[in-house]
Design a protein that fits this description.
The chain is an all-alpha fold. The protein has helices at residues 3-25, 31-37, 42-70, 72-96, 102-131, 138-151, 154-166, 170-191, 203-210, 215-235, 238-241, 247-275, 277-295, 301-315, 321-329, 335-350, 352-360, 367-384, 387-396. Helices cover 81% and strands 0% of the residues.
Length: 397
C-alpha cells in the first residue's frame, strides 16, 4: 500500500475518533446519573449496562466477519451510522419523555443501539489501522488514533458537560453528541481508503477455525476477560461512587484523567512496540491491582484524583496489545474475524460485570474495587504461568 494512503487512513480514523469521543464526552458520562435521577434503581442500571455490553459483543463478532468479507471501510461507516441512530433515540427520550416511564426505556434502547454500532465498527477500524501501519509502529499508531488524540479534547468537554448537566441542559449535550457522530461518519466516508482488495475469502476455513481457537487467542481472551469484567462493572458505578464529591469534581477528574491518558497512551504504544505486549502487561496489571485496591479504601478527594490518574495511565498499556498481536499472528483474510471473535467472546462475559457490581454493592460500596484488584492480579499470574506462550506472543509483536 502506498505510504500516502497509509497516512491518509490513519489521519482520517484519528480525526473521526477524536470528533466522536469529544462529542460523546459531553453527555455519555452522565447517563448513569440521569437514569438514577429518573428513579431507576442501581441494580437495574447495572443490568442496562450489562445488556449493552452483551449487544456490543454479538455485534463485534458480526462486524469482524463483515469486515473480512466486504472490506474495512464499508463496515466502519455502517457501524457509525447505527450509533447515530442510537444517540437520536436517546435525544428523543430526553426531549420528549423526560419524566415518563417510557423515557428511561427509550434511553436504554438507544444505548443498546449505540453500542451495537460501536461493536460492528470496532474490528474493522482496528484492522484498517494495523494494515495502514508499518510493523514497528503498529502500537503507537493504534494508540494515537484510538486513545491519545481522542483523549485530549474531552479534557475540556467533559468538564463543560458537567456544568451543563448540573444546569439541567442534558438534552443540549446529547444533541451536540449526535451532530459530532454524524460528522465523524462523513470523515470516514470521505477520508479512508480500503486496505484489502479481495473480499472473496475461504469462509469455510474461517468457520472451522472459529470453533477451534488456538492457544494464542485463548490466552488473550482469558486474560482480558479477567481485566475486562471488573473494569466494565466499574464503568457505570464510578460516577455514583464519587457523587458525594460533587458533579463538578467528577467532571474535573475525567478531564485531568483524559490528559493523562493522552500522554501515557503514546508512551504505552511505544513500549508495546519495543518490548512486546505480554512482557509489558504483567507489571502494569500487578501495579493496577494495588492502585485500584487503594482507590476503594479512600474517600479523600485529592487522593482519589491521584489514584484515578495512575489507574487510567496503567490501563492504557493493554489497549493496543490485542490488535497488534492478532494482526501479526493471522493472515489479512482472517485477522478482522479473529479480532471480532476475541472482542465478542470477551464482551459476552463482560456483560456480567455491571450486573455483578450491582449485587456486590450489597456487600459494601468498595467491594467492586477489591474485586477488580483481585481480577487483575489473577490475570497477571495467569500470563506468568505460561512463559513459553508469552515469549511466542512477544516475538510476534
Amino acid at each position: 500500500m502506498d505510504r500516502g494512503v497509509r497516512k491518509q487512513n490513519i489521519v482520517a480514523v484519528t480525526a473521526s475518533n477524536t470528533l466522536a469521543v469529544t462529542a460523546n464526552g459531553l453527555w455519555i458520562m452522565f447517563i448513569p446519573l440521569y437514569l438514577s435521577s429518573t428513579g431507576m434503581s442501581l441494580t437495574f442500571i447495572g443490568i442496562v449496562f450489562g445488556i449493552g455490553a452483551l449487544v456490543m459483543a454479538a455485534c463485534q463478532f458480526i462486524g469482524g466477519n463483515l469486515a473480512d468479507r466486504y472490506g474495512r471501510k464499508k463496515v466502519m461507516i455502517f457501524g457509525r451510522c447505527i450509533s447515530c441512530c442510537g444517540i437520536a433515540a436517546i435525544l428523543l427520550s430526553v426531549c420528549q419523555f423526560p419524566e415518563s416511564f417510557s423515557g428511561p426505556m427509550l434511553i436504554s434502547a438507544g444505548y443498546f443501539v449505540l453500542y451495537a454500532g460501536s461493536g460492528i465498527r470496532g474490528p474493522a477500524t482496528s484492522m484498517l489501522l494495523m494494515e495502514s501501519s508499518p510493523h514497528r509502529t503498529k502500537g503507537r499508531n493504534y494508540m494515537v488514533a484510538e486513545r491519545v488524540l481522542p483523549s485530549i479534547p474531552p479534557a475540556l468537554t467533559v468538564f463543560l458537560g458537567s456544568l451543563y448537566y448540573e444546569s439541567g441542559q442534558f438534552d443540549y449535550l446529547v444533541g451536540i453528541g449526535l451532530i459530532g457522530f454524524v460528522a465523524a461518519s462523513i470523515i470516514l466516508a470521505v477520508g479512508t481508503v480500503e486496505t484489502i482488495d479481495d473480499f472473496n475469502h475461504d469462509t469455510s476455513r474461517q468457520k472451522i477455525s472459529l470453533i477451534r481457537p488456538d492457544a494464542f487467542i485463548s490466552l488473550l481472551v482469558l486474560a482480558f476477560i479477567l481485566d475486562g469484567v471488573s473494569s466494565k462493572g466499574l464503568s457505570w458505578y464510578i460516577p455514583i461512587y464519587l457523587e458525594e464529591q460533587g458533579t463538578v469534581f467528577y467532571g474535573l477528574l475525567i478531564s485531568i484523567s483524559t490528559l493523562t491518558i493522552a500522554f501515557f497512551g503514546l508512551l504505552s504504544g511505544y513500549i508495546v512496540d519495543r518490548y512486546g505486549g505480554p512482557s509489558v502487561l504483567v507489571p502494569a496489571w500487578l501495579l493496577l491491582s494495588l492502585v485500584v485496591f487503594l482507590f476503594g479504601m479512600t474517600t479523600e478527594g485529592s487522593q482519589l484524583l491521584v489514584l484515578y490518574c495512575v489507574w487510567v495511565s496503567l490501563d492504557t498499556v493493554d489497549t493496543s496489545v490485542p490488535p497488534v498481536l492478532i494482526s501479526n499472528h493471522y493472515s489479512s483474510s482472517q485477522c478482522a474475524t479473529w479480532m471480532g471473535w476475541f472482542s465478542s467472546v470477551k464482551c459476552i462475559v463482560l456483560f456480567t460485570g455491571p450486573i455483578l457490581t450491582g449485587y456486590m454493592l450489597t456487600l459494601g460500596s468498595s467491594v467492586p474495587f477489591y474485586f477488580k484488584a483481585c481480577a487483575n492480579l489473577a490475570a497477571s499470574l495467569l500470563i506468568l504461568k505460561l512463559p513459553d506462550l508469552s515469549d511466542n506472543l512477544s516475538s510476534k509483536s
